[in-house]
UniProtKB/TrEMBL annotation:
Entry-linked Pfam families: Abhydrolase_1 (PF00561)
Protein name: Alpha/beta hydrolase
UniProt xrefs under InterPro entries: AB_hydrolase_1, AB_hydrolase_fold, Epox_hydrolase-like
Transmembrane segments: none
Biased composition (Gly residues): 230-242
Family annotation (Gene3D superfamilies): alpha/beta hydrolase
Protein origin, superkingdom: Bacteria
Domain AB hydrolase-1: 29-290
Organism: Egicoccus halophilus
Keyword annotations from UniProtKB, A to Z: Hydrolase
Length: 315
């Protein structure tokens, strides 16, 4: 496997209010890779070389608040409209009109919202272990998914979550990463050292946790509007309005996800009429690391000009 560090170039770009750190490699049609929580660009270490070999220009940022990208103060700075604006701003800063989006976890939620709001700029969307926003919102009303999402409630507390994840050389952060994977090779000790250094030494954890706080506040605002009879809208915070994605969508899902039910993988067909879902029964939340070879094959096929994707279950 190609050493991703030898392949990528690092630089910082001015993206609106942010000084955004990105890594990039390759030439060809642009693919943006958006990481989740608690993560940074290095999440895509097994996808970047494969996409470059397949003839793509690949750019993987540290998202707002993470690692070497600046972290604006305040919870409201992490509302979805700002996160979507960052992705559009990144596209502009790169001098590109459009890009395919690939996202995992929170990066996948941002990718869903960006594809809804800007279909002309993001003609293809691939997500790993993150449901369509409407599917997830409905699931959170069930006790089963709410139980799996217990940590999101804990993250509403001030200060404590940041401190808990960072103490003892990031012991809890390391456990959160390793416990979400089914393949021990997905996170080596050296990998975990990099995560702790990026997220608690070079960066800090208030920005990443503020994604959850901002989402909870947005949910309260929707509930109040609904109770007042004004409707809830799409809830993405992106201004998309309908939650509809007409573009081709590839969903790849590790079914041994500790945080999200496997039943959430399929997007609503009335909102996402052009979707393929590939399931990996043996993979966990970090499906793109646990089953990286199969994920890469499906992703490269999806991003090819004919957009062919397998629809069978994967081991």
């Amino acid at each position: 496997m190609t050493d991703v560090d030898a392949l990528v170039t690092h630089r910082h770009l001015d993206v609106g209010e942010l000084r955004m750190h990105v890594v990039e490699a390759g030439e060809g049609p642009l693919v943006l890779l958006l990481h989740g929580f608690p993560d940074f660009w290095y999440s895509w270490r097994r996808q970047i070389p494969a996409l470059v070999d397949a003839g793509h220009r690949v750019v993987a940022p540290d998202l707002r608040g993470y690692a070497d990208t600046s972290a604006p103060d305040g919870v409201d700075a992490y509302r979805m409209r700002h996160l979507v604006g960052d992705v559009v701003g990144l596209l502009d800063a790169l001098g590109e009109e459009r890009a395919s989006l690939v996202g995992h976890d929170w990066g996948g939620m941002v990718a869903w919202a960006a594809a809804m709001a800007h279909p002309d700029r993001f003609p293809r969307l691939a997500v790993c272990n993150i449901p369509h926003p409407e599917t997830f919102r409905a699931a959170l009303t069930s006790s089963r998914q709410a139980l799996h999402s217990w940590y999101a409630l804990l993250f509403q507390l001030p200060v404590l979550p940041e401190r808990a994840l960072a103490v003892r050389d990031g012991w809890l952060l390391r456990q959160a990463l390793r416990s979400g994977a089914t393949d021990p090779a997905s996170f080596s000790d050296d990998d975990l050292d990099r995560y702790v250094e990026a997220l608690t030494v070079r960066g800090e954890l208030s920005g990443p946790i503020n994604y959850y706080r901002a989402a909870a506040r947005a949910g309260l605002r929707r509930s109040r509007r609904s109770a007042a009879g004004s409707g809830s809208g799409s809830g993405s915070g992106s201004g998309s309005g309908s939650g509809r994605v007409e573009q081709p969508v590839l969903v790849q899902w590790g079914e041994r996800d500790h945080a999200l039910l496997a039943s959430l993988a399929d997007p609503p067909p009335d909102l996402v009429p052009n979707a393929e879902v590939v399931r990996y029964p043996s993979a966990g939340h970090w499906v793109h690391l646990d089953a990286w070879q199969q994920v890469n094959d499906a992703l490269i096929g999806f991003l090819a000009p004919d957009g062919t994707t397998p629809s069978d279950e994967r081991p």
